[in-house]
Every structure is written in structure tokens, then in C-alpha cells.
Design a protein that fits this description.
single chain, 2 domains, eight-stranded antiparallel β-sheet, 8 helices, D-amino Acid Aminotransferase, Chain A, domain 1, alpha+beta, D-amino Acid Aminotransferase, Chain A, domain 2
């Protein structure tokens, strides 16, 4: 994105705060060439008590797990990264925003080897509204992709690594050029996995259903949030294998994700989900999710880290 699109943005790079235009790396950076970076995505929400980062510790924990899977030495502790994230939000407002910690091999040598390469860590915080625009409320149309979700025999799916998202990108683009808003990916054995960057839930027969780990899903933090909220609200949640045709007969379908939050899916492959409108369970969970991230539900306030 052009620098003019980020006026006044301050970012954290290798322990220092610099202007967005000053955060430069070589064009041949290893992670740009080979997709060898790792990242996280968090949101901060402004509420009546200030600005709170949602589930900061959980996102940082997953970031370090991803680094361990790829044997990437970050050169800082989880506590140091948490502090840097909070300070980055503070220096850019603070206000509601999307936060992107990113670690990459800051080397411009040609070749796959990462041995001896410098690891840099970057944090940016940018304003973000609804990821799917008006679709967050009215619902989106999805296409089941002809591209299958990668599995752990190919790449570590529990790692939030840049290279994994080429798989997501090609599925999303296929859906977009076909006139749909998003893709739904199936696992290698044809079970429902996830969206291109979202976890997926179905509601039918009074159960909230979501694919289990066998579908090689990313273990989403928003997914976990929704499961915990739903159970607190008395909704029974089942994590299990789900077949493609269940998307067509479900009463409700929705996506979850840090960017997507809770987004209703109202059409899959040209077939209406339910009556073709966001369902009552989806809307109730979305309302409760908003209450949780904005600090209105005291049962979940330990998930909020306030920027002071």
C-alpha cells in the first residue's frame, strides 16, 4: 500500500518506533521471496473505559508457537511483544484498530536456507471497519472451492505462516471471479474445513456445529471465543466432521475470525441458507460478541487488555 494511505502511522520495528515510510527492508527480503514470514492478527476496540486489545495474551502465545514450529528465533519474550503491541496502539491513537505483528527473515540473499539470517519483528496498527462491509450484518454469499485446504502432511496448518495463505488466496480469488464474496474450503478428504481466512459454524437441529481438528483447520481464537460464549449462553456446541451437503441444509451458517468477527453466510453455491437471511442464533451470538469485546459482559473481561 502506498505511503500516502498511512499518514502519520507509527510502527514498531526491531525494538524501535519509526514512521511507516521509514520501515524499509530490501526488495529481495527472504520472506517476500519465499513466504517464510509468520504473523498474527488482533483487534483493539474502543469502549466507555478506553481502548482494549482483545485476547492479547492468546494471540501472542500462538505467535510464539508458530515461531517454534518454524524454528524461528524471535529475539524477544512474549511479555516484551505484548508491551510493544500495547505501546504501538497507544502511539497511534489509541482507537479501534487491527493489529499486525509480523516476523520475517530480513536477508536479501538468494536461496531457501534461513541459517544465520536475521529475524526482524514488526508491529503495525491500522483502523479497520467491518471486513466484509455491509455483509457483516446482511450476510455474504460463498462458493465451495475446487482447491482443497492444505493439511499437516504438506504444511503445519496450526502455524499462522505467510506461505500457508497462498492456498487461501487462490481459493478466495476463485470465489471472487465467480461472483461470490468468499470461499469455503474442504479438507483433503472432502469434509468442511474453513473459509479462506475464517473458521466456520453451522446451526442445525438445535446444535451449533464446527469442524474439528481433523479437518486441518487453523485453531482460531475467535472460534474459541464463540464456542465459550455459546456454551455460557446455553447453546450446545459440537466439534466434529461435517459434510459439504450440510452447508445446504443447515438452518444457519456463519464465519468467525479476528477480521471477520461474526459474519453470516446466507448463500452457499447458489443455495439459500435457511431463508436466505441471517439467523436468530447468528445475530444473538454476534450481539453477544460485540458486548464481550467492548467490555459490557463482565464474565469475559479477563480477555481485555486496556491501553493506558
Amino acid at each position: 500500500m502506498a505511503s500516502s494511505d498511512k499518514p502519520g502511522l507509527v510502527v514498531w520495528l526491531d525494538g524501535k518506533f519509526v514512521g511507516y515510510d521509514e520501515a524499509r527492508v530490501p526488495i529481495l527480503t527472504h520472506s517476500l521471496q519465499y513466504g517464510s514470514g509468520i504473523f498474527e492478527g488482533l483487534r483493539a476496540y474502543k469502549n466507555h473505559d478506553g481502548v482494549a486489545i482483545f485476547r492479547l495474551k492468546d494471540h501472542v502465545k500462538r505467535f510464539f508457537r508458530t515461531a517454534k514450529i518454524y524454528n524461528m528465533e524471535l529475539g524477544l519474550t512474549p511479555a516484551q511483544l505484548e508491551k510493544a503491541i500495547v505501546e504501538t496502539v497507544k502511539r497511534n491513537g489509541p482507537t479501534s484498530c487491527y493489529i499486525r505483528p509480523f516476523a520475517f527473515y530480513n536477508s536479501d540473499q538468494i536461496g531457501l536456507s534461513t541459517h544465520g539470517n536475521k529475524v526482524s519483528v514488526f508491529i503495525g496498527a491500522v483502523p479497520m471497519g467491518a471486513y466484509f462491509g455491509k455483509g457483516k450484518d446482511s450476510g455474504i454469499r460463498c462458493k465451495t472451492s475446487s482447491w482443497r485446504r492444505i493439511n499437516s502432511e504438506i504444511l503445519p496448518v496450526e502455524a499462522k505462516a505467510s506461505g500457508n495463505y497462498i492456498n487461501s488466496l487462490i481459493a478466495h480469488n476463485e470465489a471472487a471471479v465467480s461472483g461470490f464474496d468468499e470461499a469455503i474450503m474442504l479438507s483433503a478428504d472432502g469434509k468442511i474445513a474453513e473459509g479462506s481466512t475464517e473458521n466456520i459454524f453451522l446451526y442445525m437441529d438445535d446444535y451449533l456445529l464446527t469442524p474439528d481438528y481433523s479437518a486441518d483447520i487453523l485453531i482460531g481464537i475467535t472460534r474459541d471465543t464463540v464456542i465459550k460464549i455459546a456454551r455460557k449462553e446455553g447453546i450446545e456446541v459440537l466439534e466434529e466432521e461435517l459434510h459439504k451437503e450440510e452447508l445446504y441444509i443447515a438452518d444457519e451458517v456463519f464465519f468467525t475470525g479476528t477480521a471477520a468477527e461474526i459474519t453470516p453466510v446466507v448463500n452457499v453455491d447458489g443455495i439459500k441458507v435457511g431463508d436466505g437471511k441471517p439467523g436468530k442464533i447468528t445475530k444473538a451470538l454476534a450481539k453477544k460478541y460485540t458486548e464481550v469485546v467492548s467490555g459490557k459482559d463482565k464474565r469475559f473481561r479477563e480477555w481485555l487488555t486496556y491501553v493506558r
